[in-house]
Amino acid sequence: METNAKSLEPVQKIDGLVTPSLLLDRGKLERNINRLADHARKLGVVLRPHMKTAKSIDVARQVFPTEPGPITVSTIAEAEYFADHGYRDMTYAVGLSPASARRASELCRRTGVALKLLLDTVEQADALADVRKATGVTPSVFIELDCADHRGGLKPDDPKLIEVADRVVAAGAHLVGVLAHAGESYRLSTPDALVRAAENERSATVRAAEILRARGHACPIVSLGSTPTAHFAENFDGVTELRAGVYMFFDLVQHGVGVCAVDDIAISVLATVIGVKPEKGWVLVDAGWMALSRDRGTASQRVDQGYGLVCDEAGRVLEDVIVSQASQEHGILAIRSGSPKSMPDLRVGARVRILPNHACAMAGQHDFYSVVNGGSPEIDARWERIRGW
Amino acid sequence: METNAKSLEPVQKIDGLVTPSLLLDRGKLERNINRLADHARKLGVVLRPHMKTAKSIDVARQVFPTEPGPITVSTIAEAEYFADHGYRDMTYAVGLSPASARRASELCRRTGVALKLLLDTVEQADALADVRKATGVTPSVFIELDCADHRGGLKPDDPKLIEVADRVVAAGAHLVGVLAHAGESYRLSTPDALVRAAENERSATVRAAEILRARGHACPIVSLGSTPTAHFAENFDGVTELRAGVYMFFDLVQHGVGVCAVDDIAISVLATVIGVKPEKGWVLVDAGWMALSRDRGTASQRVDQGYGLVCDEAGRVLEDVIVSQASQEHGILAIRSGSPKSMPDLRVGARVRILPNHACAMAGQHDFYSVVNGGSPEIDARWERIRGW
Q1: Helix (H, G, I), strand (E, B) or coil at B227
Q2: CB-based burial of residue B280 (10 Å sphere; 0-12 exposed, 13-18 middle, 19+ buried)?
Q3: Quick one: fold of A4-22+260-384?
Q4: Which ipTM did the prediction report?
Q5: What is the average pLDDT score of chain B?
Q6: How far apart are CA B385 and CA B371, in angstroms?
Q7: Residue numbers in chain A where pLDDT is lower than 50
Q8: Is any Cβ of chain A less than 8 angstroms from the Cβ of B251?
Q9: Please, where in chain A does CATH 3.20.20.10 lie?
Q10: Are B294 and A291 inside 8 Å of each other by CB?
């Protein structure tokens, strides 16, 4: 249930928005989308954007203005939603369970969507036979690779790689390729290290594909990606597609990694000042972790941005002002520790924009985007988001 | 948009739930509700539960089975929602902005609800004159107190206390009392310290009321509360009402503080195993921070519960198994560092329940509760939740 809806209807100006509200800057979004699209084009790979960050048909339409393209999803609910909007070529990039494989296959049967699944164990491969029998759909699956001890997946040299591939075929399913996600690249912060991580991801993934091909598996798709490695990759030999999601919006973590400028960050939370404590150097706003998320991704980076970096109402950064503490519906703004600056004069009723540590997490706290353009006081559009599983 | 809805309809058993799903144990909820209600009755104060944790009319009906009672809300959207369900006596316990005061007063005018507001500055008090003029409603306000340097509010001895009270009256608004929140009690962990924190909160709040009465302000309501101090208070002399919210569900942070047993925790996230990495001692599940929240409230406590403590499908704790890492839709289960235990045999497709660090944050990631009863395989009911502002 989205109760902000009724309040927003007559509003055309940012001034009239209920706070906290999620803003999305259309110009920055467009610039970020074009940047990675251009890079993928130059490298000669298909870009399959991950919709887990935006979760919005309206944002997807900015990426694919003429017709639906290939996408990645993080939940079956996203797959159902994008299927309803005409998307036909999707990868569900989370390891399958027997129940999710069945639900995915039912979606394929019902809508004709090609939804590719992910696995890395013989048990998951074996379970596909039952799914096929129950739904009449031949599942298409990737084998998940582990290129740097990040999460799930098999190492290219793990003998289980071939075993799992053979069992996929034995279960009557279709092996479409290998898929890696260089999640560990979020911890890096220099161009050299990012270039190396991208090359490590590429070489591990291509090697796995070669091992499978030597065994007689065609392995047509070689898929990899993470926003940092996608931008820093210099060579994609042997790779067929690239996945990334947060690149559309960017955030302070990506800024800390070195992938974007602060000015590229396309989303923020608009908040209103509800109190001041000059004796402590605090300004209280009506955006707490319910609006900002609990994500503290920059805490382990060189510059800790608290619960977010603060801008004025028009989006200009207030240097060294961060959300230093957050409770459910309260944020405390303060000057970053060690800074010589003093707090700007923010009075009750003033508004600020707060940039996210992690765009996926901040956006996940909201049901829609109010689309803005730079410092313009107008709201361009209201774009929906989905959630749930 | 709640896409899980369509999948849930034919489901009556936990087995058939899409994962991740939020479970609420009805028996534990009832026990927790009764515990604090009994305590408030013994202490002779009104209990005004905070609905920011549950955000659900169905849960409110467990607290008030016969007719709507007094409640606290954390957003105007909550006030609007509960007003639609017949609740008439509410306190919006977040400092007002001119915009939120106006929206609240419009709600009062439209529905006849008594929605009390909160402030701690002369600027906020002065703004009430305009609100009154614009809406024709006389705002009722509390002055927020600061009893331990926690967030907003005035110290009882701060001369601004009287100044703000006088300005509320000068603006033509109604001063209904003083309100404190002992948020710092979340950091405590011994009964003695909690009893002292409760007494500190009580004495500071009562003292502020006395100062205002000496100035001629009636100050009929003396309101305080936080889940830890509410349970540990031994003396409520001079206090008229108690607020608490997380007590209905409890969580691992409250367990770490010493307010509840693990067995009292009424909500959990049901998740499915989607991978195993025996060489690392990892089991991967389909609940990441999108389902669990990013809250790491136990990280600063004696026992760090990671992103949550893991139970088997029926809700029995798997000793020392925690969610050690989380990404958006992945959780990694592992044995707590330092424990001699080894990982139980959890295979792909198996289900677990994950207890929250912070109930408000975990519940906030979901749009409904699947109501269960202990280890029974049946789902009793599906209860809605609201979100937004």
Answers
A1: helix
A2: exposed
A3: Lyase, Ornithine Decarboxylase; Chain A, domain 1 (2.40.37)
A4: 0.95
A5: 95
A6: 12
A7: 1-8
A8: no
A9: 88-244
A10: no
